[in-house]
Amino acid sequence: MRILPEGWKDGLEPAGRAFIILAWCMLAIGASAFAFKTWVFYAWPRANGVVVSSSVKTSQSDDGATLCSAVESVHYVVDGRDLSVENGGHSFSSDCDGVKKVVAIAPGQQRVVTYNKSAPGAIYVNPGFTVEFYLVAFVLACMAGTFAFAGWVAIKVGRRMMR
After folding, report:
1. In terms of residue numbers, what domain contains 27?
2. What would the pLDDT profile of 81-140 be if each residue is shown by its tens digit?
3. Contact predicate 69/90, CB 8 Å
4. 100 and 58 in one domain?
5. How far is CA 93 from CA 27, 133, 134, 135, in A?
6. Is 140 helix (H, G, I), strand (E, B) or coil?
7. How much is the CA Rg of the chain, to the nearest whole Å?
8. pLDDT tens digits, residue range 7-43?
9. How many angstroms separate the CA atoms of 98 and 150, rounded?
10. What are phi and psi of 94, to 5 degrees?
11. H/E element holding 125?
């Protein structure tokens, strides 16, 4: 009884090449995302903001544990207009006591707000060279590396099996 169809070995090398092409595409998109975020970081104007309120957002993990995240309401002024934005609530931690301490001291703290001049609602709070700010570029680079490695392995195995 055959498990794999006849001629499956012939498809390994082309599949490996396709994986490598896909990896290059992911890497190009990740590099573009990195370039865009860096442009935002340097080109968009900044305003000083202040945390007016903060709260704890909770979620349940798959195993039933409670996870917590800090959410801040940041007030800032652009061209005489009072604006505010909610920031946070994306990264959860199992250390709810630590998150509650951060939330308790957050009101009144200063935050840097980077905004788009043509759309002041398009903002980033405390932008910087962090994994969170460059998350899309980081994830795509990791995925590209994985696909490139899988493609390389498929090409090597395909060539070896054709001998």
Report:
1. 8-44+124-163
2. 888 888 876 777 777 888 888 889 889 989 988 888 887 678 888 877 777 778 889 999
3. yes
4. yes
5. 30, 18, 20, 18
6. helix
7. 23
8. 667 778 888 999 999 999 999 999 999 998 888 888 8
9. 40
10. -85, -10
11. strand 119-125
